[in-house]
Write a structure and sequence with these properties.
Radius of gyration: 49 Å
Strand order of the largest sheet: 1-2
Number of strands: 2
């Protein structure tokens, strides 16, 4: 075995007595400690794995929610921009109609003798300028929303 136990010298009234203790095999104690420590480490690893799985599931749920929310926002924004394009298109058509009516009116006024040609031309230019200004404002509004006509 190699391990023979422990010996002690004891002094007792000028007599020296030698006491020998039987050998104790530390293998069982050591094995019990190692087993307990291994079980504790396995429990810690299992708890950590569970926590990581829970965190992974949480992140996946949050990611799915964010993706769903982003898709809904994208659809809403697309519908909003489509509505703006429709309204702006109607405004441009309406402005074009008004411009053609003004041009018709100016041409009619030129034919009448009650107004002078320079006055009719000035009124036509003013009204035409206002319509061009409105069209420019509509165009700038469309561009500011990222809409290209």
């Amino acid at each position: 075995m190699g391990y023979s136990g422990v010996t002690c010298d004891m002094a007792d009234d000028d007599k020296k007595t030698k006491v020998e203790f039987p050998p104790i095999d530390p293998t069982k104690n050591v094995m019990d400690l190692v087993d307990a420590r291994s079980k504790h480490l396995e429990d810690l690893i299992s708890d950590l794995a569970k926590r990581l799985d829970d965190a992974d599931n949480y992140i996946k749920r949050e990611l799915e929610l964010r993706i769903d929310q982003a898709n809904k926002l994208s659809e809403q924004e697309s519908r909003r921009l489509d509505a703006i394009r429709t309204i702006d298109g109607k405004d441009i058509c309406s402005a074009n109609d008004r411009l053609s009516k003004v041009e018709t009116w100016v041409n009619e006024m030129r034919g009448r003798q009650g107004l002078s040609s320079p006055l009719v031309a000035a009124i036509g230019a003013i009204v035409g300028g206002i319509i061009v200004l409105i069209l420019n404002l509509v165009y700038r509004g469309m561009v500011s929303y990222g809409i290209t006509p």
